Amino acid sequence: MSRQFAFPYLAVHFDKNGRATSDLSALPTTSDVLIISHGWNNDEHEAQTLYDELLGNIEKLRGNELPDGRALSVIGIFWPSKKFRFADRDEDARGPAAAVGGSYPAGDRQVEKALSNLRMAFQDEGTDKQVTVDEIVRLTAHRHDDAAFDNGTELVRKLRQLLSDTEPSRLDWSREFMSAGDASYVFKKAADTPSSAKQQVVIGGPAASIREMLTQIDNGFENLLNLTSYYKMKARAGMVGKEGVAPLIDEIAIAAPVRYIHLVGHSFGARLVTAAAMTSTTGKLYSMSLLQAAFSHHGFGEVDQTGKYPPGYFRSVIEQRRVRGPILVTYSEHDGAVGKAYAIASRMSGDTSADLGGKTDLYGGMGANGALRVGEAFLNPAMFSLGATYSPYSFIAGRIHNLKSDTFISGHSDVRNPEVAWAVGQAIISAN
Fold it and tell me: Which of 41, 62, 276, 396 gives 20 to 30 Å between its CA and that of 354?
């Protein structure tokens, strides 16, 4: 249950295909409508808490007090995202190999966390997908058998079956993972991906060799299971944005009193609202705030004549000015979730750049690095960072504002604080 705000609030639910499951007979008709979406690590209760705290801070800071007789109402989007996070190996670092069978519990725990992520990501899919998930569970249980690397190759084939209905991309290595390249090669790349943990070094002897082999196998299973969950939630966010939220935006815009529609998305919710902006047809979209966005930092990127970078999937959003006012992008060096997802993809691609997951990494994430390669015509070069509450903002309509947020955003989900709320509120108020 949402807390009571000074402005009208409506919760709208969508299924995994973008079909609305809520009553839409009483859509808001105020001058300004804010549509907000949660991301990957939110069940419904957590999503509502996010909305309550962020909207509460906007209200507290008087960020909903609009000029010229305008009035704000809010729609909270709920979509079947699953609780999911990349396990932090630094919290659960591997220990020495166990004596019998070469297995060691910490490695098992990491893989089990990744397997749990996968189960949740596909739990509401069809029977065929559930059969495939069960087969993957059995493969995972036998990953340390004599045919371990053969099991890893079969894992890649099964994961590709799960992702057969998703659209691959060059921007996060999903094209190579899903459809290109020998399955045994893909598993080897995943198995060779180094952990971020400070692993214990064992020098010499058979135990060290066994431990190294088991570490590789666990790396391969953990990375591939987690990335499959990541790609699934990414695809679902896009589907809900295009098939569900975009038509909702256009329906809201029909009402004559509605003048400005504002979008806010966190994590994969940022991808959802950007997909909605790209697909909708109304000219009433005004501001869009992407909070620790979980998609490529080249998502708005211009065409690269050298061919090194693929064109940004959402490039049309800025070229066609689908959002007439400012686009805000928060990014923080403390966002380990976005950074880790894209860093793993980069390692699997064979990138040996020292700037792993950083701005020069082909596979970097927007929540970690901001929106890159957008071109000076679409960027506000004078806006550098997220400011304190009551800081003045000079937003420029039709441009991206990269807000470096290390001071105020301490992690991927730290987006409900007063500083973020103030910036979002100022973007809304800037409409004229």
Answer: 41
Report the alpha-carbon distance of residue 402 to residue 47 in Å, rounded: 25
Give the list of residues 6+ apart from residue 377 with CB closer than 8 angstroms, or none. none
CA 353 remoteness from chain centre: 23
| Percent of all residues in the chain with a pLDDT value above 90, rounded to a whole number | 55
Tens digits of per-residue pLDDT, 344-387? 776 676 665 556 667 777 788 899 999 999 999 999 988 889 99
Contact residues for 147 (Cβ-Cβ < 8 A; gap 6+): none
Indicate left, alpha or beta for 66 from its phi (over 0: left) and psi (-120 to 50: alpha): beta
For 331, the 3-state DSSP assignment is strand
Rounded Cα distance, 216 and 147, in Å: 14
Reference 237, options 41, 377, 96; nearest CA is 41
Q: Is the pTM of this model over 0.85?
A: yes
Residue 365, phi then psi, degrees to nearest 5: -105, 150
Structure tokens at 279: 């697909």
Residue position matching structure tokens 């976005």 = 338
d(CA 14, CA 62): 30
* 390 touches 369 (CB < 8 A): no
Strand locations in 38-78 (E): 72-78
- Six-digit token pair at 228? 């499959």
* Alpha carbons 297 and 329: distance in angstroms, whole number: 10
- The C-alpha atoms of residue 361 and residue 150 are separated, in whole angstroms, by 31
Query: What backbone torsions phi and psi does residue 402 show, to the nearest 5 degrees?
Result: -75, 120
Residue 424 to residues 29, 33, 70, 395, Cα–Cα distance (Å) = 21, 13, 17, 11
